[in-house]
Write a structure and sequence with these properties.
440 residues, two-stranded antiparallel sheet, 16 helices
Length: 440
């Protein structure tokens, strides 16, 4: 079978078999039970944001593109309140750091100290600090987080599984093309030409590691999305146009069309391999952020479930930390001054990709596209965050009473996106095993 991939994963010290086994036996089952928990199933996102690049052609009429709204009362109160609470806490910390006060406060009550802030500083100063804090945090971001903007809403991911929607043609192609074109660093015409006929075949021998990695990441994401639509394909639909129900299941023919060497000019198996590359990147990010993620409270207000989630996270992070062949993030951006510029460009390009997601012409694809690019952006932020390195080097994580938040912070939305995005990749690798079995 063409999808029987073998050998090492390019630019990594790990092979496909090892990842298959590790994912399918250890990670996939754990994620399956974790991602149905309330903390992870409600994702805040803005699906109404205008496309900043071209006239909006994004209102697709296909019935399977629609995102089903959830009932307000289905969202645990703790999730709604916590967003508020965290924001205030972050503001307080950042302000303290700025005025040179103690950045950490053992068990101090946020709200009471905010009461003090509210009365002791003017609104103007408050706003300035807030802007300063946001700017400071955004510096490290590889992604635009739009969950604060007007029009953002909570979406129940379980009500809206990623699957075949029928979104295709010019609109879908324009998105993929724009995303791949972001890989043209430094306005290099030759590279741009390689992408310009859209089929994004890039001779990877010609380009530096950072550019290869960029391409592999995007291609891996593209493979993952397309594997999902093949594994949850619309096999039979209701005759009633208003009825969104149908029968969904794996479509082997579609999988072959998208990935076999015969139909893809020999590229399909490489695209599948790239899925393993992006998987290893996100896996490494989880391992690196493990001390931080263990300290999160995963608060929904449902005490029993929150405890369960914390235990499950701890268990999964331990499994991930014990994985032997992690991706070496230091291989990228390690070439002195040139790397600083490269890293800056990388951030810009990934932020642009997250903007492009607002142009996706199918709401359900947009939802999962936004979530997966945000999860990826969060993984890159973790891997290349100076602040996280600083917190780790200074041993902040080992001191239970000291909050490292002012140094490194992830919002709830980023954490939800990170775990769900990784869950999507894990699911794709698992589904590949099913396709392999049938194709064998
Ligand atoms: P496309 O997938 O559109 O690919 C276009 C070209 O890119 C191919 O002809 C090939 O040359 C190249 N290519 C394909 N795969 C790779 C790869 N892995 N690496 C490198 N190059 C590659 N559809 C759904 O049904 N459900 C969804 O949830 C969904 N989500 C989407 C999310 C986003 C952000 C986007 C942009 C599209 C989404 N789509 C979704 C649409 C889907 O990805 C395809 O675009 C669509 O099915 C049309 O497929 P296609 O055969 O024309 O090739």
């Amino acid at each position: 079978c063409f999808c029987e991939l073998e050998g090492s994963i390019n630019d990594c010290s790990c092979d496909v078999d090892t990842v298959d086994h590790f994912n399918n036996m250890k990670i996939y089952p754990r994620l399956q039970s974790l991602l149905v928990k309330n903390f992870f199933r409600f994702y805040k996102v803005n699906l109404r944001q205008e496309c900043p690049f071209w006239a909006d052609d994004s209102r697709c009429a296909i019935r399977f593109c629609q995102v089903e709204n959830c009932e307000e009362q289905a969202i645990p109160q703790g999730i709604k309140d916590k967003g508020e609470h965290k924001e205030k806490a972050a503001f307080k910390y950042t302000r303290e750091a700025q005025v040179g006060g103690a950045a950490c406060s053992d068990g101090e009550d946020f709200d009471s100290s905010l009461g003090f802030l509210d009365t002791s500083i003017s609104d103007q100063a408050h706003r300035e600090f807030e802007l300063w804090a946001k700017h400071d945090e955004a510096e490290e971001d590889f992604c635009i987080v739009d969950d604060h903007e007007e029009g953002s809403q909570y979406v129940d991911l379980l009500l809206n599984p990623e699957r075949y929607t029928g979104y295709k043609g010019e609109s879908a192609h324009r998105i993929w093309k724009s995303i791949y074109l972001e890989n043209c660093f430094g306005g290099n015409n030759e590279t741009a030409n390689k992408f310009s006929n859209y089929v994004p075949h890039l001779d990877l021998r010609d380009v530096c590691l950072e550019q290869r990695a960029f391409y592999r990441i995007i291609s891996g994401l593209h493979s993952s999305i397309n594997i999902h639509l093949c594994s949850k394909y619309l096999l039979s639909e209701s005759k009633d146009f208003l009825d969104p129900q149908g029968i969904w299941g794996p479509n082997v023919k579609e999988f072959k069309r998208r990935f076999s060497p015969e139909t893809t000019g020999g590229e399909g198996p490489h695209w599948l391999r790239n899925l393993y590359f992006i998987y290893l990147i996100e896996l490494r990010a989880l391992a690196k952020a493990a001390p931080y993620l263990r300290r999160e409270d995963y608060y929904t207000g449902i005490a029993e479930e929150d405890d369960e989630v914390k235990l499950a996270i701890n268990d999964m992070l331990s499994v991930i930390e014990n994985f032997q062949s992690h991706f070496d993030e230091n291989a990228l951006f390690s070439n002195g001054i040139a790397s600083i510029k490269f890293k800056h460009d990388y951030k810009e390009k990934f932020r642009n990709i997250s903007r492009i997601m607002s142009c996706v012409g199918c709401d359900k694809c947009k939802l999962w596209g936004k979530l997966q690019t945000q999860g990826l952006g969060t993984a890159l932020k973790i891997l290349y965050s100076e602040k996280l390195n600083l917190a780790t080097e200074s041993g902040l994580w080992d001191k239970p009473h000291i909050e490292a938040d002012p140094i490194f912070r992830l919002s709830r939305t980023e954490i939800v996106a990170l775990f769900n995005a990784f869950g999507r990749l894990s699911n794709s690798i698992y589904e590949m095993e099913n396709f392999r079995r049938v194709l064998r």
